Amino acid sequence: MKKYNFNPGPSVLPEITIKNTAEAILNLNGSGLSIMEISHRSKDFEAILKESKDLLKELLNIPSGYSVLFLQGGASLQFAMVASNFLNKKAAYLDSGSWASKAAKEAKLYGEVQVVASSKEQNYTFIPKNYTIPADADYFHITTNNTIYGTELKTDISSPVPLIADASSDILSRPMDVSKYALIYGGAQKNLGPAGVAFAIIRDSMLEKISRPMPTMLNYKTFVENDSLYNTPPCVAIYACLQTLKWLKDLGGLNAIYKMNTDKADMLYNEIDRNKLFMSPLTSSEDRSIMNVVFVFKPEYKALEEKFLEVAKSKGIVGIKGHRSVGGFRASIYNAMSDEGIKTLVQAMKEFESQA
After folding, report:
1. CA atoms of 68 and 183, how far apart (whole Å)
2. Which of 95, 138, 154, 190 is catalytic?
3. Quick one: which of 85, 118, 181, 243 could link to 95 by a disulfide (CB 3.0–4.6 Å)?
4. What is residue 356's predicted lDDT score, i.e. its pLDDT?
5. What domains does the chain contain, in order, with CATH numbers?
6. How many of the other CB atoms lie within 10 Å of CB of 319?
7. Would you call 247 a catalytic residue per the annotation?
8. Residue pair 190/11 in contact by the 8 Å Cβ criterion
């Protein structure tokens, strides 16, 4: 039976990414060596790294004056890296979900953190709005998409201080105005590649703001000055990212994938709104994520949750059980999720409704 992978991460990848990476694990470019065993200083890997960075710059239309980095430790390590590099006195954070809260917690180890707004008391059912960014902050940190709660900041905001974004779960899902950001970072395991590598897109002038002594591996300068090759990078994961970037370019780039993503999200949200059994827990429809669609049974049907999960499983639908803090269901419909997968889930919802 065909499987439809709705897991929130590690998540569905393009078939071509999996196929090409599997082939490279056996034999990279006819070299007789595996991508797992070639030197990261070799010409073969240097070409892979350069092409990956160049394609990311092309797809996101990254202006000059920015460096692209591939790092280890995931976005969670960069929660601390951001603050250790750039928090000198005070930083501002928007608390829009669990990962945003964790980023702020790490920053508090380095200085004052001002949470400009939070939707925590409402279980993060909306993106906070109408807040003021303090002009004396060293930077303003946002999380663009909240995987657990299914909310997304879909526009590139303007900030009077350097804007830093954790874009782990919606990077490359839509065009972005990179020039508005001082730093965009995230884990790769949603839209870019497998777990094990993270990315950072950093405005080079931000490096001049680094003042405190810190461990070598926590310093963004280390990776800019050494072209992400200070130590051995996750070569296999970076190779997989390159395959995904090529796939995105062949699709037509970010405008094309954004149209595909919004069409998929609309298909699923329309069924949630139509179906008598289901509802969205969000209080603001404009904040609905196009990457992570969170939905629940209406209260009178909540007892049917496990039965619906069994029906979904019988149709090859994997990974839609909601996070324990929200309950219900979560369909993560990243770039590589097919229309067929969405249609299969929608059909399961319709059939379940007819039998309830």
Report:
1. 10
2. 190
3. 118
4. 82
5. 15-251 (3.40.640.10), 254-355 (3.90.1150.10)
6. 18
7. no
8. yes
- Hey, is 52 helix, strand or coil? helix
What mean pLDDT do residues 36-44 have? 94
138, 166, 170, 287: which one is catalytic? Answer: 166
Q: What is the C-alpha separation between 162 and 32, in angstroms, rounded?
A: 47
Percent share of the chain, pLDDT over 70? 100
Distance between CA atoms of 356 and 343, rounded to whole angstroms?
20
pLDDT at 36: 97
State the sign of the Cα–Cα–Cα–Cα dihedral 199, 204, 205, 207. positive
- Closest by CA position to 78, among listed 182, 169, 166: 166
Residue 138 annotated as catalytic: no
The token pair that represents 278 in the structure block: 């289901």
CA distance 124 to 115: 14
Given 53, 95, 99, 138, the catalytic residue: 99
Other beta carbons less than 10 A from residue 42's beta carbon? 14
pLDDT (average), residues 197-208: 98
Closest CA to 62 of 180, 200, 178: 178
Does the pLDDT at position 10 exceed 90? Answer: yes
